[in-house]
Design brief:
Organism: Latimeria chalumnae (Coelacanth)
CATH architecture of the largest domain: Sandwich
Oligomer: single chain
GO biological process, one term: septin ring organization
Radius of gyration: 33 Å
Keywords: Coiled coil
Protein name: Anillin
InterPro entries: AHD, Cytokinesis/Rho-signaling, PH-like_dom_sf, PH_Anillin, PH_domain
Number of domains: 2
Structural class: alpha+beta
Number of helices: 7
């Protein structure tokens, strides 16, 4: 009856409101819990940074004490051990300074730095960046003069590569005598940057963002000591080691030995590596002194690998040109990596190889098709171009691949997944050198042209 319907409707209304309120309360609790966890994570980061900074400070203090004792040749002045200590002091100081900057940033931002806005557009995936085959060219005159003067080298060189606040890698020391390929020093160092959180309770592996910036810096250590300086150092050594029984001189010597110093390595060139540097192997150095023995460039091999984990599966109906006539074939499609594979049945994916596949390297646009162009509903197209063939009139021919989904939701999912793959490929420039723009194969294994080829 009408009364029963009205009473039933009234009884259901409060329940819906109660359910909505319960959902809102649960959502608020989840948000508060996440904020509390993020705050605890920031505190753990600060604690880990403080521990590492203290450890680096101890290394800096011990290395400074050792270097302060190198006052003449008898006590290691100008030796390779002193240069190695200067290298260790430089690396420890730079790491400590970078961690202090990160610590101040965390303390200033606090838990607010974890609240990020979700972008409406498609963001490219992260990846891995590798730098290898580092070569540092020197001036020919400097190399020739260094080869003619036997004995201790006049200058030491090293290359420091840094990314972010904690990733700092330095090459071994090298001199002009290490110039194997003519006048270039080759460093046997390969650096792979994959951002990893090493903070306690937060062990996680992260990909490097596509907008990365890697600083390549060249440092030089001069090993030339003037006669006046050597005399002063010798006098100080005699005063320090022969008259330690005197109270005033002993206290002064201990003060000098225990003092913390900075490294004698000086920056003689730098360059910033970005994703735009991909494909190059020669990079100019900035801030190179006029009298520096460096030629002014550095050579390295830059390689990038995107970590695109886009996968999607489902039934699609593909349009094919068979003997000049259009035909639609339903098949099981699997998107993985940078290609779409086709099977006749979902069970064939595990048991058989794919009957055909479409590589997505050359496609630049994926969008739905209106009913005016294609009467089949829920159809979308992949657009690419191919070079001119003998029977073509135009220099570039537009090729289109038409695919139809079963539902509107599946069509939207396929378009989003495919566009994500295209963004990843274009951003990281993951195009094979010998691969054509697109390779699309029909179900019978023969290469075929799409609907508009």
């Amino acid at each position: 009856s009408v009364d029963a319907y009205r009473s039933q409707r009234r009884s259901t209304r409060p329940r819906k409101q109660t359910e909505m309120r319960t959902k809102n309360v649960d959502a608020e609790r989840v948000v508060k819990k996440n904020l509390m966890n993020q705050t605890l994570n920031v505190q753990e980061k600060v604690k880990e940074l403080n521990d590492e900074i203290n450890s680096l400070q101890a290394i800096v203090h011990q290395t400074s004490q050792a270097l302060n004792c190198c006052v003449d040749e008898e006590h290691g002045k100008g030796s390779l051990e002193e240069a190695e200590a200067e290298r260790l002091l430089l690396i420890s100081s730079e790491k400590r300074l970078a961690l202090l900057t990160e610590l101040n940033r965390l303390k200033g931002e606090g838990a607010s730095q974890v609240v990020t806005c979700v972008s409406e557009g498609i963001e490219p995936c992260g990846g891995t960046v590798t730098l290898s085959h580092l070569q540092l060219p020197l001036k020919v005159e400097f190399v020739c003069s260094a080869m003619q003067k036997p004995g201790k080298p006049s200058q030491y060189f090293l290359v420091m590569i840094r990314y972010g606040s904690g990733s700092i890698v330095a090459t071994p020391l090298a001199t002009a005598e290490d110039a194997q390929n003519g006048d270039s020093i080759t460093f046997p160092t390969t650096v792979t940057f994959v951002e990893i959180n090493t903070y306690r309770y937060m062990y996680a592996r992260k990909e490097i963002r596509s907008d990365f910036e890697i600083d390549v810096e060249v440092y030089s250590l001069s090993n030339c000591v003037s006669l006046t300086e050597s005399v002063l150092l010798s006098q100080f050594a005699n005063a320090h080691f022969s008259q330690c029984n005197q109270e005033m001189k002993t206290s002064t010597s201990l003060h000098i030995v225990n003092s913390v110093r900075t490294s004698n390595f000086t920056l003689v060139g730098s360059h910033k590596i970005t994703l735009a540097s991909l494909g190059k192997n020669k990079f100019p150095l900035d801030k190179v002194p006029f009298l520096s023995p460096l030629e002014g460039n550095i050579y390295l091999k830059l390689r990038c690998w995107p970590h695109s984990a886009v996968e999607h599966r489902g039934f699609l109906t593909m349009f094919e040109d068979v003997s000049g006539l259009g035909a639609w074939h339903r098949c099981w499609c699997a998107l993985s990596g940078n290609c779409i594979s086709y099977w006749s049945d979902p069970n064939d994916e595990r048991r058989k190889t794919d009957r055909s596949r479409t590589m997505l390297w050359g496609f630049f646009k994926i969008e739905p098709i209106s009913r005016e162009v294609c009467v089949r509903p829920r159809t979308f197209e992949l657009i690419t171009v191919r070079p001119q063939r003998e029977d073509d009139r135009e220099t570039l021919v537009t090729c289109r691949l038409w695919l139809s989904a079963d539902t509107k939701q599946e069509q939207t999912q396929w378009i989003q997944k495919l566009n994500q793959v295209l963004v990843d490929l274009r951003t990281w420039r993951s195009f094979p050198a010998s691969q054509p723009l697109s390779d699309t194969y029909s179900l019978d294994g023969n290469q075929s042209q799409e609907s508009s080829c």
